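User: Hi! I have a protein structure encoded as tokens and I'd like to know what sequence might fold into it. I'm fairly new to this, so please keep things simple.
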């Protein structure tokens, strides 16, 4: 592709190079490989989008794009090299676009973040286990909302819904007209959709919040907002990206083991989507602006320590029948938890020596340094040694990403194995009660579902 074609054709339609005019080995290779040609199309679109978003820095953007073209051309006919160059450059352009158009938190956002931090700290004095939940509840709002689900698909083989044919209860005729004018069938085709009308910007008109369950290995759900804009609902990205379509999510959740949730809160006259992601010893709450692109996000981080115990009453894995631990075994397991400081997750791991003594003969040292592979639906906390009847075992404390309840506290699992042995793995339940040790705030990038951009 010539520099003129890629760099200066900002008003051209979203298309790749004109292959009838290919005049180099690189251009011939791109035209001959459909995946490369599609990347070239994406490059043209991303470049034009960024040029439009950054009028004050167009000269520098043109310069870096020319430099990239020179680097790309060094790949000649190497398809893998070309693909890598395109993908890396597309990622850079996308991040530059996000930074150019993303919402920047202002003094009100920072004040809301600090108010929530103070509420958590104050509540933690009397409710050290559930201060975060109570604080979020104090800011929670469900003002004037109407929710409805999509209709089942005509063909039950398709795991998605259709936008409703009939006006749901609670929807006004004016809203129904706007909903039907907004092309929402594309959202329903992504999976099982649910719709909520709620005023997100305080203009007196209800906006639209769509949740779509797509399933997959992670049992994913994606969430997007659309602003009520005159006679239709407009996608959140439309002012910044005319090509935006269904699937441009505000955040997502993973129901396969992850501990994530979200809820609407209101403070200082503003609505926020409080997206919460939990793991062992820490909860992070991201205050997302529901109708903007979020990059630098006000974040509250709550850290916990746990008091861990090994219940005397345990349950067999095979049939869940109850049995009682021998006192010496319960003592050994409890002692290992205490020695490992597993209840203090802020402490970094410092294990560099074998967990159990390595014998002169056997499978080798690697089997003695850690418990081994973990399973992604559980969160591994730490590995430790457990001495039972003068024999050394290797154990791992696992949990479900900090999931916590008033009745059961923290459910955890201690798995135990004998190194260099074919003996079956043993598992013992562990309970934990938490208390807050730190509440901090920051503004930065999100992760674990809120890092859509």
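Assistant: Happy to help. Inverse folding works backwards from shape to sequence: for each of the 453 positions I chose a residue that suits the local structure. Here it is:
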């Amino acid at each position: 592709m010539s520099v003129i074609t890629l760099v200066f054709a900002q008003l051209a339609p979203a298309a790749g190079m004109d292959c009838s005019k290919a005049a180099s080995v690189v251009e011939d290779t791109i035209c001959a490989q459909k995946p490369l040609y599609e990347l070239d199309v994406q490059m043209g679109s991303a470049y034009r989008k960024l040029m439009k978003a950054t009028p004050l820095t167009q000269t520098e953007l043109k310069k870096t794009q020319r430099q990239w073209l020179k680097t790309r051309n060094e790949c000649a006919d190497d398809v893998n090299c070309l693909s890598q160059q395109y993908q890396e450059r597309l990622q850079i352009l996308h991040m530059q676009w996000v930074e150019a158009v993303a919402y920047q938190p202002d003094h009100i956002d920072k004040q809301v973040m600090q108010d929530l931090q103070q509420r958590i700290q104050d509540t933690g004095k009397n409710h050290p286990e559930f201060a975060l939940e109570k604080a979020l509840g104090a800011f929670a709002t469900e003002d004037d909302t109407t929710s409805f689900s999509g209709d089942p698909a005509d063909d039950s083989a398709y795991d998605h819904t259709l936008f409703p044919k009939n006006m749901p209860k609670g929807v006004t005729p004016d809203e129904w007209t706007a909903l039907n004018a907004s092309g929402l069938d594309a959202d329903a085709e992504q999976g099982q959709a649910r719709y909520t009308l709620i005023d997100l910007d305080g203009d007196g008109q209800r906006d639209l919040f769509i949740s779509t369950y797509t399933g997959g290995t992670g049992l994913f759900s994606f969430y997007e907002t659309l602003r009520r804009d005159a006679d239709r609902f407009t996608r959140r990205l439309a002012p910044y990206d005319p090509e935006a379509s269904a699937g441009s999510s505000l955040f997502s959740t993973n129901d396969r083991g992850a501990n994530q949730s979200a809820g609407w809160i209101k403070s200082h006259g503003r609505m926020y989507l409080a997206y919460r992601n939990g793991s062992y010893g820490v909860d992070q709450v991201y205050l997302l602006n529901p109708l903007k692109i979020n990059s630098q996000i006000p974040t509250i981080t709550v850290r916990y320590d746990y008091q861990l115990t090994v219940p005397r009453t345990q349950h067999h894995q095979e049939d869940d029948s109850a049995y009682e631990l021998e006192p010496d075994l319960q003592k050994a397991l409890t002692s290992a938890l205490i020695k490992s400081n597993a209840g203090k997750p802020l402490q970094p791991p410092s294990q560099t020596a074998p967990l159990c003594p390595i014998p002169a003969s056997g499978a080798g040292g690697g089997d003695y340094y850690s418990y081994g592979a973990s399973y992604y639906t559980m969160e591994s906390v730490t590995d430790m040694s457990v001495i039972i009847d003068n024999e050394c075992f290797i154990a791992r404390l696992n949990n479900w990403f900090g999931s916590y309840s008033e009745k059961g506290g923290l459910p955890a699992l201690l798995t135990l194995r004998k190194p260099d042995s074919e003996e079956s793995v043993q598992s013992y339940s562990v309970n934990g009660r938490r208390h807050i040790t730190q509440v901090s705030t920051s503004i930065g990038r999100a992760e674990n579902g809120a890092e859509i951009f």
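A useful reference point when you look it over: The mean pLDDT is 89. Feel free to ask if any position seems puzzling.
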